Amino acid sequence: MSTTPWTGRDDGNGPEHRRWHHAVNEFSSVPGVSLIGFASDAGVRRNGGRPGAQAGPEAIRKALASFAIQPEFVISDAGDVSVEGDALEAGQENLGELVAKQLNDGHLPLVLGGGHETAYGSYLGLARSGLLDGRRLGILNLDAHFDLRTADRASSGTPFRQIAAREAERGAEFAYAVVGISEPGNTAALFATAAELNVRHLLDLDCQERHLERVLDFVRAFVADVDALYLSIDLDVLPAAQAPGVSAPSTLGVPAAVVLEVCRLVARDPKLALADITELNPVYDVDTRTARIAARLAHTLVTSRPVPEGH
């Protein structure tokens, strides 16, 4: 695990000049949002995608560093879990340990990927924390793909199939919903698997800005059915023009304004226990567009949360 000091624009002393790099470098005894990097593209390579997502966490932090943020929001950085070579499974186990620790310390973990193989490590942390004992977990994925592939080895295309198996092992119903599914990006076999697992989904065509209320109603209905919520964001859900720096650019995508509104809605709900933002590939990013929108999504998740009383 590694950590890098945060630096950024500095306009002066005092809370009125506070930016993310100030917030992360401040000590606070109050639980808040804990950033965790998962520096991995092993799952993307196994899935036949474009490698480069290993540098994603660093790029998101760099884009976040100079964002302005109000004094009441508490943020810490727990560092990176790095996957060396093809050691994906060990990396996911290590990520699970770190996520569980942050949860048990009272923080909301916000995991920065990395390919979408990040999601299985994130889930392991939830399972190990004890937070799911006697509770129904709901997983909301903003993604162009179901990521329900069946394969001999884990990859960025298998995490939610792996999670479904683990949920079955603990005798829990697999409650999984996806916003932004691309019809040409998922085979008939994947749609069949989704149907077998009772996965709720919205197609990207039905997630454009004119359909915003329908999207928010879909999310509200899903969240109402669960006790704890895990939000996973694959940046390839966004239009390629807004997020070119991903492993598999979208052919249509869900506009950033819609994705941001979903993040605002979910972050305000006390059921949110964990979130991750995945698939940033800086190698293919144009004008750091993808890193910036990833940072804006992270910022929205942090600043939309209810502020603890007395803070």
UniProtKB/TrEMBL annotation:
<feature type="binding site">
    <location>
        <position position="143"/>
    </location>
    <ligand>
        <name>Mn(2+) 2</name>
    </ligand>
</feature>
<feature type="binding site">
    <location>
        <position position="234"/>
    </location>
    <ligand>
        <name>Mn(2+) 1</name>
    </ligand>
</feature>
<comment type="pathway">
    <text>Amino-acid degradation; L-histidine degradation into L-glutamate; L-glutamate from N-formimidoyl-L-glutamate (hydrolase route): step 1/1.</text>
</comment>
<keyword id="KW-0464">Manganese</keyword>
<dbReference type="Pfam" id="PF00491">
    <property type="entry name" value="Arginase"/>
</dbReference>
<feature type="binding site">
    <location>
        <position position="234"/>
    </location>
    <ligand>
        <name>Mn(2+) 2</name>
    </ligand>
</feature>
<dbReference type="GO" id="GO:0050415">
    <property type="term" value="F:formimidoylglutamase activity"/>
</dbReference>
<feature type="binding site">
    <location>
        <position position="236"/>
    </location>
    <ligand>
        <name>Mn(2+) 2</name>
    </ligand>
</feature>
<feature type="binding site">
    <location>
        <position position="145"/>
    </location>
    <ligand>
        <name>Mn(2+) 2</name>
    </ligand>
</feature>
<keyword id="KW-0378">Hydrolase</keyword>
<dbReference type="InterPro" id="IPR020855">
    <property type="entry name" value="Ureohydrolase_Mn_BS"/>
</dbReference>
<comment type="function">
    <text>Catalyzes the conversion of N-formimidoyl-L-glutamate to L-glutamate and formamide.</text>
</comment>
<feature type="binding site">
    <location>
        <position position="147"/>
    </location>
    <ligand>
        <name>Mn(2+) 1</name>
    </ligand>
</feature>
<keyword id="KW-0479">Metal-binding</keyword>
<protein>
    <recommendedName>
        <fullName>Formimidoylglutamase</fullName>
        <ecNumber>3.5.3.8</ecNumber>
    </recommendedName>
</protein>
<dbReference type="InterPro" id="IPR006035">
    <property type="entry name" value="Ureohydrolase"/>
</dbReference>
<dbReference type="InterPro" id="IPR023696">
    <property type="entry name" value="Ureohydrolase_dom_sf"/>
</dbReference>
<comment type="similarity">
    <text>Belongs to the arginase family.</text>
</comment>
<feature type="binding site">
    <location>
        <position position="143"/>
    </location>
    <ligand>
        <name>Mn(2+) 1</name>
    </ligand>
</feature>
<dbReference type="InterPro" id="IPR005923">
    <property type="entry name" value="HutG"/>
</dbReference>
<feature type="binding site">
    <location>
        <position position="116"/>
    </location>
    <ligand>
        <name>Mn(2+) 1</name>
    </ligand>
</feature>
<keyword id="KW-0369">Histidine metabolism</keyword>
